Amino acid sequence: xxxxxxxxxxxxxxxxxxxxxxxxxxxxxxxxxxxxxxxxxxxxxxxxxxxxxxxxxxxxxxxxxxxxxxxxxxxxxxxxxxxxxxxxxxxxxxxxxxxxxxxxxxxxxxxxxxxxxxxxxxxxxxxxxxxxxxxxxxxxxxxxxxxxxxxxxxxxxxxxxxxxxxxxxxxxxxxxxxxxxxxxxxxxxxxxxxxxxxxxxxxxxxxxxxxxxxxxxxxxxxxxxxxxxxxxxxxxxxxxxxxx
Length: 244
Fold this sequence. Notes:
Distance between the termini: 58 Å
Strand order of the largest sheet: 3-4-2-5-6-1-7
CATH class of the largest domain: Alpha Beta
Number of helices: 12
Structural class: alpha/beta
Largest sheet: 7 strands, parallel
Low-confidence stretches: none
Order of helices and strands: HHEHEHEHEHHEHHEHEHH
Helix content: 40-55%
Number of strands: 7
Mean pLDDT: 90
């Protein structure tokens, strides 16, 4: 089962790839370190999940949030893909059981937070395994120029040194050119293996209107779209109260 298109349909039930997905997957399968910037809902997860089913060894996914790990693992298990996470939401018994699954080679994807991955216990577990793919989700957390910088993400480069044969993949939905450069430099990537998807949403119409009389203009918009749903953002609670 080494055909991405077959896995896409047979395992995940999709008929075709979204823009850039196939290019990113092929780059990873060619054992090239990869940075992919794709919008939320753009299919980033499949870009490492499909290669994980083609590579012989383990795929380690570094994720910053427990809720994200749980959601991903539940979805993968629903598709029949053996995967586990290791974090503080597990009881000691569940934690050890998941470690045992990984140790016995019964798991294709392991989800961990960076601070968990850097512990001696997990490093010892992985040292006896073949790690083929190291995936860094929310990779903008690596950059000091990012809006959600996390110092422990900078230490992931140490993990790369421990598993030099593993392909490294960095994924994010938000990264300026400066943040992308910082990610590449930190992880020792080359710019030629960078993929940036379009963030345009064809189902959205965006209009910029010069501000003249904000209250009057907002009321005109409300009247124009009477009996329809909408959201109005204000700078303060006071403005919300005044407008309502």
